[in-house]
Every structure is written in C-alpha cells, then in structure tokens.
Amino acid sequence: MIIRTLLIANRGEIACRIARTARRLGIRTIAVYSEADADSLHVESCDEAWPIGAASARDSYLRGDVILDVAKRAGADAIHPGYGFLSENADFARACADAGIIFVGPPASAIEAMGSKSAAKQLMEKAKVPLVPGYHGDKQEPAFLERQANRIGYPVLIKASAGGGGKGMKVVEQPVDFAAQLASAKREASASFGDDKVLIEKYLVRPRHVEIQIFADGHGNCLHLFERDCSVQRRHQKVIEEAPAPGMAEARRREMGDAAVAAARAISYVGAGTVEFIVDAAGDFFFMEMNTRLQVEHPVTEAITGLDLVEWQLRVASGEPLPLAQDQLRINGHAFEARLYAEDPARDFVPQTGRLAALRFPTDGVRIDTGVREGDSVSVHYDPMIAKLIVHGADRTEALDRLSRALEATRVAGLATNIGFLAALARHPAFAAGDVHTGFIAEHEADLLPPAQPAGDIHLALAALAFMAARTREAREEAVRSGDPFSPWHRVDGWRLNDDAHHRLAFRDGEAERVVTLHFRRDGFVLDLPGGSMPVQLLAEEDGLLTVLLDGVRREATVIRDGLDYWVLPGAGQPDRRLSLIDPLLEAEAMAEGAGARFTAPMPGKIVQVLIEAGAKVTKGAALMVMEAMKMEHTIAAPADGTVAELHYGTGDLVEEGAELLRFEPAKG
Ligand code: ADP
Ligand code: ADP
Ligand code: MG
C-alpha cells in the first residue's frame, strides 16, 4: 500500500476506529486534537498527535489549512477525514490533492455533485434514479415555495439543500404553518450550513429508511455491499441501525443495489459512499441523498460481510482495485448497531455534558466503538455520542437478543444517557417483529418512555449500602491513620451505644425526597424503606460493584458514587436511577440564597438571538432569547408577565447546561 503515514482529521470514536485499521495495516498514524481533547482516547490511539487549535470545532477540526499544514510537517501522505467535520468539504479535498496528499474519500467533484441535495436530485433525475415528488429547483421565494407545497400536497417536508444530521428539516402538516416553518428551516440551515437554500418534498407516512453501501475504485469498478435499515429514528436522526433490512426480498435488493451503483457511476464516484433511499409502504423506493463518506453505521455492514471498510477505503485511496467483485460478496447473518448518547430521554432528549463517572461495557459478543473512557468528559463542543454497540448473530432474532443483553450489561453513570431507552427499543415486540418505520419511536413512545416512576426500594437499599460501604472504608482508613485501629471512635456500626443504633439517610429522587433508615444489626442492617422493612447485608464491594443480600436474596449491582450522587445501576432489567444524598448543610445554604425566578439553560448551547433588553417589561409567553443547541433553535419565553431584571449572556455566547441566562421578576399581583 502506498500510504505509509495517515493523518486522521477527526476525533472521538471514528478517529479511534480508523487508527485501529491503519495500525493493523502497518500505517503510521497521526492524530490531531483541539485544546479540549489533549487527553482524549483518539490522541492515545495514534503514533503521534498534533495540536490544531481551540476547543470549538471551527477553530480546530474544521481548520483545513491548519490540518493540511500539520500533514505536511508530520510527513503524512494521506488524510482520512472520518465523518462530519471536513469529510464532505470539496474545497478541502481539492486542497489535499493540490498539496500532493491523498484525500481518503471521493474526488472533490463527486462531493460537490452530492453536496447539495437539490443539485443531487437534478442529477439523479437524469440518471433515472426514482425521486420523491417535490420541488428541488433554485427558486426560493416564499410565495413560490408555498405554491409548490400546495401542488405537492400536504404533509410536506422542508429540507435544507446543504443539510445533514436531520438539521434544518421541518415537517409541515397544513398550509397555515408553511410560512413560519419555512422561515425556521431557513434560519437553522444558515446557522448550520451557511446556506439557507431549501427543497420541498412530499412527506411520506410510515416510510422506511433503507440505504445502500457502495464502493468504487479508480479502475472503473463499482459495487454495493447490500443495505442497512436505519428506520428507527428520532427527529430524523438514526438511533438503531441494522443489516440486512428486515423483510427485504432478493429482487428488491438487487434493484436498489443497481440504482445505488447507477447513482455512483453518474458522478464518477471513487471510494466508500452511501445512497439513502426512502421506501414507502408498498416497497417502492426513492432517492433521498448520497453521503460521500464513511457512514456512522458502517460497522453493521462490516459485521454481515466480514470486511473492513476502512481497509477498503485505504486500498482504493492508494490506487488499488476493489479487493472483491460483486459476485464474491455474501450476507452472513444479521447485525445491529445502537448509538449510546449523552442525552436525557426524560427531558425530551436534551444533550448532556459532564464527566462519565462510570463507563463499563460487556466484553463478549459485542463490538464497542467509542472515543471515551471512564472518567472522561462529554463536552459542550462536540457531538454527544458516547459509543456504538455493534452485535452480530446468525439471524435477526439471535442478533437482537445479543443487542438486548449487551445494552443491559452496559453501565454508565455521571450523566443521563439513552441506555434505558435503547434497551426498551431492543426489547420491544414490534421491533422484534421487524415492523420498523421512521415513525416507530413516536408510535411506541408510551412503551419506550414510560412515565417516571419513583425509585424502588431496591434502588434505595442499594444506595444506602453503597453509602455504608464508603463509610466503612473511610473509617478503616482513618483508623489506620490514627494509629489505633481498634479505637471505638472509628466504628461505623452505630453512632449511639444503645440497643437500636440507627442512621437516617435522605436522598433526592428527581423532585421527591426519600428517606431510608438503617438499623444496625449484628449481621447487617434492617432498612426502613417506603415499601416496608428489609433485612440487608453488604457482602463485598469493589470499584462500585456490590455483592449484597437483600431480603435473603444474593445479587450483584453497581452503584457509582459521584460526589453526592449515587448512580444506582441494579441490572437485571431494572431501570438505572440517580439518587442524590441530601447533605443537610448544603441544603441550608441553598435555602438561604433565596428564590427569584431563575432561567437556566436547559442544555449546553449558544445564544443566537437576544430579543429584549435588560429592564424590559414583557408579557407572558413573549420570546426572550433564542438558544441554539445541537443545531436546533429553542426559544426561551417569559413564564408570566414581568420584568427582565438582568441579562447574563449576549448573542454569540456559549452557555453550559444549568447556566443562568437571565433574571426574571414576575409582576406583582
Ligand atoms: P450517518 O448518516 O453517517 O448515519 P448521521 O446522519 O446520523 O450520520 O450523522 C449526522 C451528521 O452529523 C453526520 O453526517 C456527521 O456529519 C455529523 N456528526 C455526527 N457525529 C459527529 C461527530 N462525532 N463529530 C462530528 N460530526 C458528527
Ligand atoms: P440528512 O441529511 O439530515 O440525513 P435526509 O434527507 O437523509 O437528511 O433525511 C433524514 C431523514 O428524514 C430520513 O432518514 C427520513 O427518516 C426522513 N425523511 C427524509 N425525507 C423524507 C420524506 N420525503 N418523507 C418522510 N420522511 C423523510
Ligand atoms: Mg441522510
């Protein structure tokens, strides 16, 4: 292979994943990193790592000039862009070529051809690839677009031409909403992509998202590596992907594969690419877009083909022909991928930031692609994906069973994640039946997002035992330090020397407060819990893994202490829970600070618009600020009539979750 040194212009799991293959092939790897990523896993995964700028992607991972300069200085002969960032930036691909460095991706012209969804559709129309009915021309006057929407028929979908990641996309159910949705889509599109051009499409109901992985080399060969079904989505973003697609007939697979290969050939494609189709209830398929890069969910294709797509990319970029021909490819079994995100399903999936106090995966029967380790942080600057879990089985049932088990054996603490939601999805009977469509999550929301239950007795008992385990350890350490290991003052089996020594612990459980009283017994404790009394015993504790006897039943569970937070992860299909120990001292301080109406950022993000001035009197419902988080706009509105007493942030400021945005004084009376 002519590539000897590869610079990986990305971060996180994909940078680690690319490094793994490169190293296996004996290629020297160069990482680049922002100030926020100096100690990250992707830096450690490479032979060398070069700093490229500040935390914000705009100042680091999107700086093509800086990255190219590093590539030259580090002696890289190729750059792999991963996905996101510069992967679909034609100017960057061209700049690499001009500098004599191989861009591991398609030629700049192919990126350009597919870069605009509208232009791509015009091309595909010519290549006779079926399209969803819609308008994808250049005219952008609102009145004209509205007429097009009426012609197409509601519901319609407005899409940013330059879009990706589900951003700048708005479903419009009825004509009265069109103008407002168009304006919003255009704002999101220009904020995310610097281009507010949109297209209008018929919005299909209960469709499937089925995409074809294609590969082409520089010798005129082009083939497909079958399909992936990515129908299970939330806000048009993929959650669980699988290959092959459930219920796919061989003839339809061939037709879709041929259409995808035709699409790639139409733009003289080279390298790995994905042609995304939307499939209606009748099974008819329509071109949606082509992603001219490695896809997040490529591992499911690797699992069913036994191939390494990054290796293929590197071979093709080196000028080698494709390693296999179409008739040498076979589907073996079934594979799933689940995307583990730092987000809170209980609060409309708002992205979470913070330290991963625990991150533990099962080791057998699952491939874990991740860019973080236990103790690392998920920051406000980048995508909140923590890991991808990939499983393979002889058939769909076996693979799905493995996925459920892998999700249930995963332990994450320190911030809210979608792990419980993913596990509920994997266990859902309709999912098991293969009845997937893009509205699946919305349709089964009640099952997938059950209303919050109070913490169970088991959670409280485990938190209390973890508290005692920590106390015992601290007391033992203190005794050793004091030089008198037998001093009665270091005993933790009771504060008082009377018969019923007990200790009262209070935990915050969401909004509620729960109390556990521990009664000390010779062989453990009796706990007074909301559901009654329970004899318990702590048999062992190591690194958060507790072995306990609860009511005589021996079991294991994980409880991770993170400051005052107790992340109780009971396993065995029981939900995870965060309980916060109420420290009476801290509570008193907080009460003393007094209450004013506080406006805190519901998630990390950026202030894109401030609509009022400090001191402004506003009426209930008035828009005060527009915050952008995960490239979507969120409007902060007045909860009542009142005055905006202080503004703490201005347009363009970045805010952390929980930051106070402004101080609001409700009108009296
Ligand atoms: P895919 O189509 O590959 O499954 P998605 O559409 O889910 O990817 O991802 C949305 C887009 O968000 C990706 O195309 C990529 O551009 C961007 N993206 C996702 N994750 C990251 C990340 N960790 N870093 C940078 N960009 C990302
Ligand atoms: P992105 O670049 O954000 O990935 P896509 O055009 O691929 O944008 O669309 C993302 C998702 O939106 C699709 O996977 C699908 O679920 C949904 N979608 C797109 N077009 C349509 C449509 N015409 N009707 C119904 N759903 C659609
Ligand atoms: Mg897409």
TrEMBL record:
Domain Lipoyl-binding, chain residue ranges per copy: 594-665
UniProt keyword Transmembrane helix, yes or no: no
Residue intervals of the ATP-grasp domain: 121-318
One Pfam family matching this protein: Biotin_carb_C
One term of GO molecular function: metal ion binding
Needed co-factor(s): biotin
Keyword Zinc-finger: no
UniProt domain Biotin carboxylation: residue ranges: 2-446
The entry's keywords: ATP-binding, Biotin, Ligase, Nucleotide-binding, Transit peptide
InterPro entries in alphabetical order: ATP-grasp, ATP_grasp_subdomain_1, BC-like_N, Biotin_carboxylase_complex, Biotin_carboxylation_dom, Biotin_COase_C, Biotin_lipoyl, CPAse_ATP-bd
Name of the protein this chain belongs to: Carbamoyl-phosphate synthase L chain ATP-binding protein
Organism: Oceanibaculum indicum P24
